[in-house]
Specification:
The protein is mostly helical. It has helices at about 5-15, 30-35, 40-50, 65-70, 75-85, 105-130, 130-150, 155-170, 175-195, 200-215, 220-240; strands spanning about 60, 90-95, 95-100. It is about 65% helix and about 5% strand.
């Protein structure tokens, strides 16, 4: 078992058997190890497995078993668990262990509502400040979704969809917004994937993405924000259809009673 984090051990680790990759880590892993800590590599690999559904929601993650599978010591795995908890993908339970996070339908409902508000804000900001190169980048990601939808490749579509929204929020230029958004996306990933798997969902989704980009390209801040809000709430409705439950209309916040002077 490898305990050193130096370049030599990194190269050795990159050739350790890994069932998810046919016995090897992906190409470029050695370069990645040279610029990132071993715990970061473990975190990214576990994150990929969770998002791909290879590690199911509610599954218990055994530190020793994962360390053996990846050919690393238990320290980097422990550090990766902590980072994954911060990102919303796992939960650490005292005296019980680490579990892939399971989000209830009720909690997912609330997350969708919050994400819709954040996306609306991001859409407004990006429409006000996006450079032509930014718009081209967003269009390229939408074109990638178009191709995946035409081939009915859900995995490729889902990845491009994640990249599109992440890049859009990144372009808003607010680090706190981006960090909050990424955590919410991690918590929703299983529901988003299931909603996109429904018949007819991909064409509807691609049309909505094209509309969003065109409004951003035209500098229509309010319209871009509203298009993103509607897009997210449409995803929420698809989630409920996938689970055969009615989507409730978000209740407006009640104003607190005013105190007399």
């Amino acid at each position: 078992m490898l305990k050193s984090h130096g370049p030599q051990s990194a190269a050795a680790t990159a050739t350790m058997p890994h069932p998810a990759h046919g016995g090897k880590f992906p190409e470029g892993t050695i370069a990645l190890l040279q610029s990132n800590s071993l715990s970061m590599l473990v975190q990214r690999d576990l994150e990929r497995m969770i998002l791909a559904g290879e590690l199911n929601a509610g599954a218990k993650l055994n530190e020793a078993a994962i360390a053996a599978m990846l050919g690393v010591s238990r320290g980097p795995v422990r550090e990766a668990f902590r980072s994954l908890e911060e990102s919303g993908l796992v939960r650490l339970e005292k005296n019980r262990g680490v579990f892939v996070r399971r989000v209830s339908l009720e909690e997912a409902d609330e997350i969708y509502e919050l994400r819709a508000a954040l996306d609306e804000f991001a859409g407004r900001r990006v429409a006000q400040k996006a450079a032509p190169a930014d718009v081209r980048e967003l269009r390229t990601l939408v074109e990638r979704m178009d191709k995946a939808a035409a081939r009915d490749e859900l995995d490729a579509y889902y990845l491009a969809n994640l990249q599109f929204h992440d890049r859009l929020v990144e372009l808003a230029g607010n680090a706190k917004l981006l960090a909050t958004y990424r955590r919410l996306v991690n918590e929703l990933h299983l529901y988003r994937r299931a909603s996109l798997a429904q018949a007819g969902a991909l064409p509807d989704s691609t049309r909505e993405h094209h509309d969003i980009v065109e409004k951003i390209a035209g500098g229509q801040a309010a319209a871009a924000g509203r298009a993103l809000y509607d897009h997210v709430m449409g995803s929420r409705e698809r989630m409920h259809r996938a689970h055969a439950t009615p989507a409730t209309t978000p209740k407006p916040a009640r104003a607190s009673p005013r105190r007399r002077p």
